[in-house]
Design goal:
single chain, alpha+beta, Beta-lactamase Inhibitory Protein, Chain:B, domain 1, 4 strands, about 20% strand
């Protein structure tokens, strides 16, 4: 009888561990997948901003900073790191797809 109760308790603990761990593992997998798909960060956003000049085309900006982390058409966002964003550099483009301004801030 004691062995049967011990087996039931162990089974319940095992089920509880699965219920708790599976969502955590799923989030970790999603985060790892996102990290592998997203471009690397630009590092110091002040230095990155100094490389961007008004009048540059989107192709020129892409060649200097790489692919943007977020493309909103007329605005491109670059992060300082791949995952945990501390600072953001935003590059603004006009109707002719030329840089009109840029700004950065701590997120």
């Amino acid at each position: 009888m004691l062995h049967r109760k011990a087996r039931l308790i162990l089974a319940a603990i095992g089920l509880l561990v699965l219920v708790v761990c599976v969502p955590i593992l799923e989030v970790a997998f999603d985060l790892a997948t996102f990290a592998l798909k997203s471009p690397p960060g630009v590092g110091g956003v002040e230095l990155a901003q100094s490389k961007i000049k008004n009048g540059m085309s989107k192709d020129e900006v892409r060649s200097v900073l790489g692919a943007p982390h977020r493309d909103r058409g007329g605005e491109w966002d670059y992060w300082d790191s791949r995952l945990f964003v501390g600072s953001v550099l935003r590059v603004h483009f006009g109707d002719d797809d030329q840089v009109t301004s840029s700004e950065w801030w701590l997120d």
